[in-house]
Amino acid sequence: MNEQQFIPFLQQLKQLSPSQRQRLHHTLDDCETSTEEVLTIKATLRKCPHCESTSLRPWGSSHGLPRYRCACCLKTCNPLTKSPL
Ligand SMILES: [Zn+2]
Q1: Residue pLDDT, tens place only, 35-54
Q2: Angle made by CA atoms 18, 21, 9, in degrees to the nearest 5
Q3: 16: CA distance to ligand 1 center in Å?
Q4: Ligand 1: centre distance to CA 56 (Å)
């Protein structure tokens, strides 16, 4: 949604009834939960992105992401290694 659509949208929020506000809250809560779930999935690494081995060991963290070292190829990786991000 761009800014020009968002401002009238905010104005409309003021016209919500108490029960509609509550439903809006629930909807926003649902959105946040699903965002967190996606992040949890991305932050968990099961396989080495270099050699596909599952022998990953926790190796501290960097840039706010958990870091792992592969016991097989000894390379380190994080959940975003070799992903489009
Ligand atoms: Zn590896």
Answers
A1: 665 555 555 678 899 999 99
A2: 125
A3: 54
A4: 8
